[in-house]
Design goal:
- This protein has 314 residues and is α+β, with helices and mostly antiparallel strands.
- The chain has six helices and 15 strands.
- It has a domain of 52 residues.
- The longest helix is centred in the middle third of the chain and has 35 residues.
- The protein is elongated.
- The chain starts with 9 loop residues before the first strand and ends in a 12-residue tail after the last strand.
């Protein structure tokens, strides 16, 4: 089961459920007080939003799941009809199969990009708080700096397509698993598709910037957005030069074009030992490096005009 310790949401399942309620919803609790029966009865009524529903509660703290029933009752009877009240009761503790399936479903619902990336590409490390994945897993084209700088739109399209397919497969997988587990556990025929909604104002997991590592020192910084039904979109924001887990400098990408001129004459802190290797590698893009070992800096120069940004090592 994936770690979901920071989940603060309600995921809704829109299900046509045989002879039961029209909807089944999944929510979570993650503290002793919040997971008490009295607290959960109040919580599931809120989750049901005034409607009859089956609510599956995932107890994050203890790794369990429960089935609660929310019912809308006409308390006025024949004499005073229309006096509706809402009540809730715990039906059962659900088997491990439901707990695992619910956790996977909620994990994808709240972090679709993280789940999709982990399925589509190999995670290598974390640099500057951003995860680093393998570029070759999502891009089949050349990975040299000159060629990548001319292929931004193709890279955007390739990454979007690859991750969208992975997201669709993952979404279907968690939907089918939870549907089957619930049907077996609560003996109700589930014929509808499962969809999730996250009850937060804005989910940061729907948008993130990650690195995709290419050849040698090159890493591509890509902004990813998950739009649910519209899939995943990718936008290359920079070509990043990274050495031993340190971002040396980044070439910004604007409107699909790598803006090399933006880094000419710029100085960056760097004490790496691969000066010669990096200089030779960057020469293919007419980028030169002027090193100042005393200050621990590197300045980007134009090979065709090395006076731009040239710094004497003193």
């Amino acid at each position: 089961m994936k770690s979901i310790s920071s989940l603060l949401f309600t995921a809704g399942l829109i299900i046509s459920a045989g002879y039961s309620h029209a909807t089944t919803k999944v929510t979570v609790c993650q503290s002793n007080s919040a997971c008490s029966d009295s607290a959960l009865k109040s919580h599931v009524i809120s989750v049901a939003q005034g409607e009859s529903a089956d609510v599956i509660v995932l107890d994050i703290l203890n790794g369990k799941s429960f089935h609660y029933e929310v019912a809308v009752i006409d308390a006025g009877g024949l004499e005073f009809p229309g006096m509706y009240t809402v009540g809730a009761r715990k039906v059962s503790t659900l088997p491990d199969e439901v707990t695992i399936a619910a956790a996977e479903f909620i994990g994808f619902s709240t972090d679709p990009l993280g789940n999709t990336l982990d399925d589509a590409s190999t995670k290598l490390s974390v640099v500057n708080g951003r995860p680093v994945y393998m570029l070759s897993d999502v891009w089949d084209g050349p990975q040299s700096l000159p060629e990548l700088s001319q292929s931004i739109y193709q890279i955007n399209s390739a990454i979007s397509s690859k991750l969208q397919r992975a997201a669709e497969l993952r979404k279907v997988d968690v939907q089918v698993s939870l549907s089957a587990a619930l049907q077996a556990a609560i003996s109700k025929v589930i014929t509808g598709s499962i969809s999730a909604s996250v009850a937060v104002t804005q989910s940061s997991s729907n948008q993130m910037t990650v690195y995709f590592k290419g050849n040698n020192y090159l890493t591509v910084a890509v902004k990813l957005t998950y739009n649910g039904a519209n899939g995943v979109s990718a936008e290359v924001k920079a070509l990043s030069v990274i050495d031993n887990g340190v971002v040396v400098f980044e070439i910004p990408v604007e409107n699909g074009i790598a803006n090399l001129e933006a880094v000419f004459g710029k100085t960056f802190a760097y004490n790496g030992s691969n000066q010669s290797s990096m200089s030779n590698w960057l020469a293919g893009l007419n980028l030169g490096l002027s090193w100042n070992s005393r200050r621990g800096t590197v300045t980007i120069t134009d090979i065709n005009d090395p006076d731009i940004g040239e710094v004497e090592d003193q």
